[in-house]
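As promised in the previous annual report, we have extended the structural survey to additional targets. Below is the entry for Germin-like protein.
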Amino acid sequence: MAVCCRVLVVMAVLMLSSRVFADPDSLQDICVADLTSAVKVNGFPCKANATADDFFFAGIANPGATNNSVGSLVTGANVQKIPGLNTLGISLARIDYAPGGLNPPHTHPRATEVVFVLEGELDVGFITTANVLFFKSIKKGDVFAFPKGLVHFQKNNGEVPAAVISAFNSQLAGTQSIATTLFAATPPVPDNVLSQAFMIGTDEVEKIKSNFAPKK
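The corresponding structure token record, generated without further manual editing, is:
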């Protein structure tokens, strides 16, 4: 092979490689999210003027209200609350549980989650794509990890409130609650799909859907 041809081949390989490996990290110190911008990108565009407040959030310092149908509340500390997290690939949340409270089965499509128990005791678990349940009881000071994208849950079976701090390797992990996703979608998932999938009657499907309807 002529020298010029070899050079061209090497250049082509380098160009193809650069598409995969070049600049995997941020190219600036900060890129504070402009949450009001009309520009749509994978993330948020950077705003021109940043301040220290863009990197601050006090919203997970205190327990959240758990007087709802599931007895739990998730308070996110992600890029929508802390614009300075934009492009940094990390976020937090606080989850509070009333006695008997449940964080229902859900997934985070964009992140692995690690929880640190602040108070109380919880039964937690995740389910693999082979339908294997990994289940454990955890208490104050314990840490448990939920792999990215897998269905998982937390349940407070104790008689006192519980709380955890969750960490995610995404600035906006996303959450899909299984029941809400299927029974409260807009437009609704057809009854015959849910009836066949859950092996229940359409009357039961309608009853479950009514439980997720907005209260008048």
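The longest helix spans residues 3-21. The longest strand covers residues 91-97. These points will be discussed at the next consortium meeting with the crystallography subgroup.
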